[in-house]
Amino acid sequence: MVPSALISSGKLQSMYSSKQARKRDKASDIRYERYPMTMSDGGLVSLDWYPKQPLSDPVASTDASVGSYTLDESKPTSIVIVMPPSMGSSSDFRIRSLAKELHANGPAGCHVVVVNHRGFGSTPLVTTRVPSFDYTGDLREVVEYLSKTYSGTPLGAVGYSMGANILTKYLGEQGKECKLSTAATICCIYDVTMMYEAISEPTLFNIHVLQPSLLSAATRFAKKHYDVIQGGARKYNLDRLLRSNDFWDIDRLLTAPNAGYSSYEQYHRGSS
Predict the structure, then answer these.
(1) Helix 162-174 vs helix 137-149: angle between axes, to the nearest 10 degrees?
(2) Distance separating the N- and C-terminal Cα atoms of the chain
(3) Using one digit for the tens of pLDDT, what is the confidence trace for 8-61?
(4) How many whole angstroms separate alpha carbon 47 and alpha carbon 64?
(5) CB neighbours of 258 closer than 8 A, spacing ≥ 6?
(6) 45: part of which helix (H) or strand (E)?
(7) Where would I find the H helices in 92-186?
(8) In degrees, to the nearest 5, what angle opens at C-alpha 97 toward C-alphas 190 and 120?
């Protein structure tokens, strides 16, 4: 998906991508096979496979046949993990287009698996933890699972926006022990503090388009998962967030304290 040359700024490109999210055409019209995966803390992410999960049951089996096809037929030559952006999922146009392109024109037998963040992409939020720029735990567990289940199969990863930030932090944390053979980041937010400063500039676009859009998406998420988020020992001022007109309240009232930070400034530094 290549936007018009007139859409030259990152902000406009982000808005363009969000407006295109539900688009379907021959390059993106695909169906996934879903595998819900429970994390060590009880949280849930959804792995959406394209064209399908290489094994019907990911648990190792000595039986030559698994589901409707054999283990040999389903063995992938490579697996590419895709990390969606904030508020995004496997259903986004750019994610579907990438999955289809990788499978069609990547290494023969390449399978793609999209990691839907907690609470997104029809994935239930089952614990109080919400997605954040700084948390690499889910990606780390997914990579461990894939490397064990499909031992010897090369693993790669692609991340968009927040997904790119998580992937970059994961690569740095793992260093030489990283189990990924290759990785690519798209629109990675290396400096989260700088990004929020740019969004806070008093321009007409920021004030009337970008900030309201971000706040609206966050409040929809908070309203949808209100009871789960408030179900832990720590309580958040979600009622204030749902009434807020200040997009800083997204991180001030929810994301930063949920991730264990004392302020949103600390959260932004810890996510960069």
Answers:
(1) 70
(2) 27
(3) 555 555 555 555 556 666 767 889 999 999 999 999 999 999 998 886 444 443
(4) 24
(5) 128, 129, 130, 132, 229, 234, 236
(6) strand 44-50
(7) 93-105, 137-149, 162-174
(8) 60
